[in-house]
Design brief:
By secondary structure, the protein is an alpha+beta fold. It is built from 6 helices and 18 strands.
């Protein structure tokens, strides 16, 4: 079905154009209104198209800031190809500073490929899938740990649906150059309903990231995003005149499945004993949950069920049953 989202941008026209992906939304205050999702298209000569997004979750800021800075730089740069940037993809969530949209409760990174007749979140996903993916030769969707997670600076990608796509994805990860590159099936985070998984389904090399923790801006995570985007644009010959930072040696890992993650067994206060990046062993103490209502009750001890490196841990101390507390990864091939 045709997307109901529209824009004044002509993606085939040369030069820089700035407008919105206009998402129809009928509210109490505006019967025929639309939600403005900022979008920039910069097109030069012949070459590939890079689609860069951030703000898929509204409380993750490293990608949002990095793309705004990149947009200003591209206004002064000669391009071979095209760059499409949406720095606040789930604009309602960005306005609210929340992970999910306050308009329909939608988690944009869990509804792909979307629905043109759904709520605003599903319509945005459908627009990206049906209108922007067909234009793109590579996709980067920038994320961070947001309000709930302390995360290692990682780039994540799916394995690819063919040998050639797998190699293209691996090249994209190497070009972006995050300290850790993780190949995942997405089982612990949305499976096939994420933006980068949907791009894989369309045969497009794609990656996502986790670059910060808490509802703040990580200086290190922002720098990784900025350097990675510049390297990708240079390596794919889209901005050959932009000096690319030296490519660091990224380390390849694989996610240890959600069965080896630790989830809170009770409501309470979370006392962690391990940090992100720490190597842990089977049976090692991970922390405690201190019950809220009985101050004399013994805290619940948490232990790791698998060996690996701590990829993330919960950021807030107040914890409810089912909250993800720790996730692990292991060296690829181990």
């Amino acid at each position: 079905m045709k997307s109901r989202v529209w824009t004044t941008i002509d993606f085939n026209a040369s030069g820089m154009q700035s407008d919105f992906a206009r998402v129809p939304f009928s509210s109490n205050s505006s019967a025929y209104g639309w939600i403005p999702v900022p979008m920039l298209c910069v097109k030069g000569g012949e070459g590939p198209t890079a689609l860069f997004t951030a703000g898929t979750h509204g409380d993750e800021y490293e990608g949002q800031v990095a793309l705004r800075k990149l947009a200003r730089e591209l206004s002064k740069t000669k391009l071979h190809g095209r760059v499409i940037i949406l720095p606040a993809l789930n604009q309602p969530a960005v306005w609210a500073g929340r992970r999910n949209s306050p308009l329909d409760g939608g988690n944009l990174n869990r509804v792909f490929p979307g629905n043109p007749e759904g709520g605003p979140t599903a319509m945005i996903a459908h627009y990206v899938t049906t209108e922007l993916f067909p234009l793109a030769d590579l996709v980067i969707d920038l994320h961070s740990g947001g309000s709930s997670l302390d995360y290692l600076p990682v780039a994540l990608a799916r394995a690819g649906r063919s040998d050639s796509q797998s190699e293209a994805i691996r090249c994209l990860l190497q070009s972006f150059g995050a300290p850790y590159s993780v190949v995942t099936d997405g089982a612990s985070g949305g499976a096939g309903a994420t933006l980068y998984a949907a791009a894989e389904q369309h045969g497009i090399p794609a990656l996502t990231t986790e670059l910060g923790s808490g509802s703040t801006l990580s200086e290190n995570g922002l720098a990784i995003a900025e350097r990675g985007l510049r390297r990708v644009l240079h390596d794919y010959d889209i901005t050959p005149d932009i000096e690319a930072p030296e490519t660091p040696q990224t380390r390849f890992f694989q996610v240890i499945g959600p069965a080896s993650s630790i989830y809170s067994p009770s409501n309470g206060f979370f006392e962690p004993y391990a940090k992100t990046g720490e190597k842990v062993a089977i049976g090692q103490k991970a922390g405690y949950i201190h019950p809220l209502d009985d101050m004399l009750a013994q805290p619940l001890e948490l232990t790791f069920a698998a060996a690996g490196i701590v990829t993330f841990r919960r950021f807030p101390t107040l914890t409810s049953v089912g909250d993800a507390l720790f996730g692990l990864m292991a060296e690829a091939g181990s």
